[in-house]
Design goal:
There is one protein chain. The chain is α+β, with helices and mostly antiparallel strands and 248 residues long. Helices cover 25% and strands 32% of the residues. The protein has five helices and 14 strands. It has a seven-stranded mixed β-sheet, sandwiched between helices. Strands 13-12-11-10-14 form a five-stranded antiparallel β-sheet, with no helix packed on it. The protein has a two-stranded antiparallel ribbon with strand order 3-4. β8 and β9 form a beta hairpin. α2 packs across α4 and α2 packs across α5. The longest helix has 20 residues. It is globular, with a radius of gyration of 18 Å.
Length: 248
């Protein structure tokens, strides 16, 4: 089984690469591997309606079309794991110390360097198509939005990165990780994902609707829910946005 072959649709300016790819899909069928990419995204979306800031010609903002018919909708979080790992594989070519803050924010230290927005279209018992939106901060050095903790590769590496080289690396690693998913190597994906989770060692402070508590991360299930074990030995399970990571 072969992975996807990228086919690029390039724009100078877009509101959102995810929205543009959805618009194109209403007009005709596009092959798996279609990539909508823009030099400037002025209304990029993050998880749960958050915005994504990106300066013109400084970062990677793209959306990839996948058709993972082999994945049941109940197991769709494997796509998120796969994309998170591909991003870390990419950034590791340039920097170290990268982790995944559940569910799929990419962190270096305590700062966010990349975000992922995955939108799936379900048809019957299968995923019809998947739009993988990726924003990677590469050469931007000033952030003006109210995002709490953005950082870029340049701020850490202290030099400009070749965007074309970073893009090629990202697509290469997405191909490799997607093929791994196609070949049903879920155990390897799960192990790699958990091993790279932000705060996966020791106990840390969290906050839910009942207040602040300390707990250790025990796992993430197929639906993407996070399992914690608190100081009283109780297990707690959370969906996205039901839990806040607090500063140490």
């Amino acid at each position: 089984m072969t992975s996807f072959t990228p086919q690029y649709i390039q724009y100078d300016n877009l509101a959102s690469t995810n929205e543009e790819l959805k618009r194109l899909l209403k007009q005709k069928q596009f092959k798996e591997g279609t990539v909508v990419i823009t030099n400037y995204q002025n209304a990029g979306k993050g998880q749960a309606g958050n915005s994504w800031e990106s300066e013109k010609d400084k970062n990677l903002t793209l959306s990839l079309l996948l058709r993972p018919h082999f994945i049941e909708p109940a197991n769709q979080f494997y796509i998120s794991k796969m994309v998170s790992l591909a991003l870390i594989d990419t950034i590791r070519e340039f920097l170290c110390g990268i982790t995944i803050k559940w569910p799929n924010d990419i962190y270096i230290g305590d700062k966010k360097v990349a975000g992922i927005l995955i939108e799936n279209s379900i048809m019957g018992p299968h995923i019809d198509y998947c739009i993988v939106g990726i924003g990677l901060n590469v050469n931007q050095t000033e952030f003006v939005s109210d995002a709490p903790n953005p950082i870029s590769l340049k701020q850490l590496g202290q030099f400009d990165y070749d965007l074309e080289k970073v893009k090629s690396s990202l697509i290469k690693h997405l191909q490799k990780r997607y093929k791994q998913l196609q070949e049903e190597n879920e155990d390897e994906i799960n192990k790699s994902y958990f091993g790279l989770l932000y705060r996966n060692i020791g106990k840390h402070p969290f906050k839910d609707e009942d207040g602040i508590f300390r707990a250790s991360i025990k796992g993430v299930n197929e639906l993407g829910m996070l399992t914690l074990k608190d100081d009283e030995g109780q297990y707690r399970e959370y969906a996205f946005k039901e839990l806040e990571f607090l500063k140490e």
